[in-house]
Amino acid sequence: MAKNLLDQLRDMTVVVADTGDIQAIEKFTPRDATTNPSLITAAAQMPQYQDIVDDTLKVARSSLGASASAAQVASLAFERLAVSFGLKILEIIPGRVSTEVDARLSYNIDATVAKGRELIAQYEAAGVSKDRVLIKIAATWEGIKAAEILETEGIHCNLTLLFGMHQAVACAEAGITLISPFVGRILDWYKKDTGRDSYAPAEDPGVLSVTEVYNYYKKFGYKTEVMGASFRNLGEITELAGCDLLTIAPSLLSELQQSTEGNLPRKLDPQAASGKTIEKINVNKALFDKMHAENRMAKDKLAEGIDGFAKALETLEKLLADRLAVLEA
Fold first, then answer.
1. What are the beta bridge partners of residue 228?
2. Half-sphere exposure for 110 (CA within 13 Å, toward CB)
């Protein structure tokens, strides 16, 4: 019996579930899972996960005591909810879960470092080794520098909202464990900017961006892993077969699983990358800022991504406050 595309992909790439939906993770049995504020907010509104939300609120109330205000309880629960979902996910998967630092801290090195340590402390207090957690941080210059500090403490990081080579190179030179370049969001920007309705998979700007980063890392022997993220269609995924990791939404995992015709060729290969002629870049802050300012797509999408995650967090804060009012009525 022929292997489906998902199984073929798993032969050459680590498949990661891009969701906070625990039932979807159980269905597709990925090695790792990633979450972000939008995914956690969506999952927190699903009836099947109301117990996770309620339990987190109750623990927050118990921790703070009866004298704490509703706002204080909701704030503490908000800080702990992503870890609550992460702990549930880690009961299912054999590998790592990514848990994101508050996007509103993306330009503050000290606050990001403190929040990363705090998240790891919550996991360790629940009996989970820090090796099973990736602290997810936006790939601003400040975010990369914060992650560099955390990595020296043995806290592994996943740098997200990554759109340009300047971000990727800075992450590699900082010794970051993993990066998440956003394939689909790059495509979205180019479609809007050029007025084109579509791109062939091999010409997809997001695919080309991740391919460039992958080849650069393998050419120069960086240990940082590349995890393509934010996919819009199957073609983007199959064009990146062979990438270190790919984090894929449940709807596309299902499509891959149901596709049983044809062989999936490897498109990214470390040996092929090692033979390419590529110029090495040494990124300092001045060059990072210059390259970022010149890359309209990266500049737009990084700012938009941070803003979107921040708004999702505000929605989550309100959701928790409203739910606490119901529980304590």
1. 246
2. 0
Kindly report the pTM of this predicted structure.
Answer: 0.94
Distance CA 266, CA 282 (A): 30
Upper half-sphere CA count for residue 27 (Cβ side, 13 Å): 16
Closest among 213, 219, 221 to 229, alpha carbons compared: 213
Query: Which residues are catalytic, by number?
Result: 136
What is the three-class DSSP state of 20?
coil
Query: pLDDT for 249-295, tens place per residue?
Result: 999 999 999 999 889 999 999 999 999 999 999 999 999 999 999 99
> What is the distance in angstroms between the CA of the first residue and the CA of the last residue of the chain?
57
Query: Tens of pLDDT along 178-187?
Result: 999 999 999 9
Q: 97, 129 in Cβ contact below 8 A?
A: no
CA 262, CA 139: separation in Å to the nearest integer?
37
CATH number listed for the domain at residues 5-32+106-311: 3.20.20.70
